[in-house]
Amino acid sequence: MSTALFTHPACLGHDTGPYHPERSDRLRVVLRALEAEAFAPLLREAAPEASVEQVARVHPRQYVEAILKIAPEPGEQVALDSDTVMSSGSREAALRAAGAVVAAVDAVMEGWARNAFCAVRPPGHHAEPARPMGFCLFNNVAVGAAHARARWGLERVAVVDFDVHHGNGTQAMLERDGGFFYASSHQSPLYPGTGMPEEKGVGNILNVALDPGAGGAEFRRAWAEAIAPALDAFRPELLIISAGFDAHRADPLAALRVETGDFAAVTGTLLQVAERHAKGRVVSALEGGYDLAALAASAAAHVGVLMGH
Description:
By secondary structure, this protein is of the alpha/beta class. It is 38% helix and 16% strand. The chain has a single domain, classed as Arginase, Chain A (3-Layer(aba) Sandwich). The protein is built from 9 helices and 10 strands. An 8-stranded parallel beta sheet has the order 2-1-5-10-9-6-7-8, sandwiched between helices. Strand 9, helix 8 and strand 10 form a beta-alpha-beta unit. The model has no long low-confidence stretch (mean pLDDT 98).
């Protein structure tokens, strides 16, 4: 079985305007890196649009419909908050970003892909139930986790997040439901100010806060010594990854000193957990990463490990 890549050109049409860090070039460089010969075996799939019903499993339907009704003119940006915007292409991009994770869950559950990477934008992990924030409109990984339960009847779904920023939206959606588990490593203090170790949900939340300046050793230790054992205790039937690469030392939006190889190592740790409990089923979705060269290299390293390189 191979690794599937879910993406869609519409995700490039989410135009955040000049000088915005979450820009279309982020996805372009990732896709360009995945055109290398080493990635020829990827199963390349077009991300479908998520349905309103699928998105409304984690967001109030009224919120979903309100976002989808925002219709900027071509070339115009509508600001939803100080750093989250919509353009004429954002509606389709957001639906395909969430739909990619839904389709990837189906792919690994149906068994025609061993695991999957969703190269999509806008990202999702800051989107709260009824509030867009942090560049995010819909919470892509939470939509996928809810779909795994609704369609496939899974009782234990884990979402893990190595983006440098805490996934406040994902935690808010999962923290009251013991059938889900959420774990995150992230820099603290840093936006959005959540993700303290004492935030435990119903015993299903694990936050590992990393000090500014922490590097690969601390990053790897968080995953191997804290998060992996907690995942083993939870025994997930499916593992979903919020794959942000902004903990990289080159990233302009944070102050960790993680290297490309550290992302590969943590990906390997997570694959081992999935082998033990989830028949290897892993779905990964792109979140942050704002230095283009570091993002491209790190995403390629991550997908390489998914493929077994």
